[in-house]
Design a protein that fits this description.
Layout lengths: L1 H30 E3 L17 E2 L6 E3 L2 E5 L5 H6 L7 E6 L4 E4 L2 H32 L9 H23 L5 H17 L15
Parallel strand pairs: 2-6
Antiparallel strand pairs: 1-5, 3-6, 4-5
Helix pairs in contact: 3-4, 3-5
Length: 204
Amino acid sequence: MVRIIAQTLSLMKQFLLLTLFALALFAHGQNTLDWDGKYQLRLSDFQSPATQIGNTTIYSLHSGSGINFAYAMTNAEFMFTKNFNSRVTCSFNRAAASLVAPDSAMALELVGFARYEFDLSELYASKLRKKIYEEKGAFSDATFFKPLFDENQEELAERHTIAGRESDLGRNKEKLDELHQEVLKEIEQLSDFCKDCKSPKKKK
């Protein structure tokens, strides 16, 4: 009887741990948006407690957009893998995204700039996929990724800073639209290097 109770408690413990793990994965999935070129960020996506609209005279934006690069494979797999597109992900973290604005009109302007940021991050994710594809050789080791990633991040940060200054974080809608269209055009030009692309398309 004692043995049966112990086994039951052990099974319940395992079930509880699996349930908690599943809930953690679900919560992560709910908080993270992978770029797909279709979803448009909304004000409700800025779920950080730091988000504030009203009762302030300042405005600021902390976007949850970012580029992640990770892989797990054996040395042999690494040696013969040329395409790392699926390992480079552009995502938006709702829980980390915040904005501060004196009113809802300005808040929506900041959301407009966040949409630009999300697309800009995907552009530089595509650029990184292209760099990796072009420079990865059969005898490259894992350290060759770091300078490519660092250089890519520096270029992204510089372009982001310039866009923020020129458009006043999206308050200058005409300028923001101009910059955004440039980014979308560049993404299209790098369509061979989307996350799900298996290999560059043949030139026509």
